[in-house]
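During the reporting period the student researcher (J.K.) took over the structure-prediction task from the postdoctoral fellow and processed the backlog of single-chain submissions. One of the processed entries is reproduced below for the supervisory committee.
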Amino acid sequence: MIPELRELLEVSRRRVLMVYQHSARGQVFREWLDAITDRVLGEIPDAHTAVYEGGQVAMFFISLDERRIQAIGRRLGRYLRGKAEGRVRDC
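J.K. obtained the following structure tokens:
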């Protein structure tokens, strides 16, 4: 899956991909999301990510443009107000 993400990102540095992820049974969700993020960033070292964690689901935002990812993280933080703590992460 990660080679396909890289292919899509290379079309334009400004492109942002959104990837839905459902929780895995039997795993601590936060640790699993961290492992996925580490793998993406390990295989696409020039990528930047923001992750929204919502209980049993998460949305990954991935781009080669760091400013776009930071803007997404800020926007999610404003939208969620006080509920963003621990649920939105820039990586």
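The committee noted the following: Residues 2-90 form one domain.
J.K. will present the remaining backlog at the next meeting.
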